[in-house]
Amino acid sequence: MTDTPDATPDRRPGGRTARVRAQVLDAVRAELAEHGHEGLTMEGVATRAGVHRATVYRRWRDVGGLLVDVIDAAGEIDWQPPDTGSLRGDLTALNQEIQQSLVERPSFAVALMAASFHSAPAARAQTRLWTDRYAQCEVLVERAVERGELPAGRPTDARSLLIAATAPLYHELVLLRAERDPRLPERAARAAVLAAAAGAFSDAGS
Asked: Which residue ranges carry the DNA-binding annotation (predicted)?
């Protein structure tokens, strides 16, 4: 894949421009999920989108540009962290979302992760997206402190807790390619909550 600068088309264009962008990005998601990054081509995306390939080349330049924009588009979705009334419930719900995205076939999430290893701009865009998602999810820890589930006098590193809670999903489903375990989202959440309550993710140190 050819890398491009991190510049992307206008993030919220209107009218025909918005329709073309939506068609092309939908095509990128479908092509990437079905054929992986190896099979993602400008021509294939243009054909699936029903858009002249010159338009695709002019707006996105190459496959790297398409990947960056499709990741940026994910960040534009009005996603909100779960709010179940407990930290364990919130993390379980979050893990269930992650698990579903990883086990569906074809999995766009897995294909996009793989593609980011072949495009530096896409990798940077994915890092930006995940950084934003972690920041959004810090509210789960804030609410847990307010409810008394986590110690208020010993601040919890929210990002470390979130990584610990979600990492088992990626380890099992992406690295080990294990079968979906419906108990894993809750089990991983429970372990992370117990560790957090014991001060394992305290900013004050070990």
From this structure: 41-60
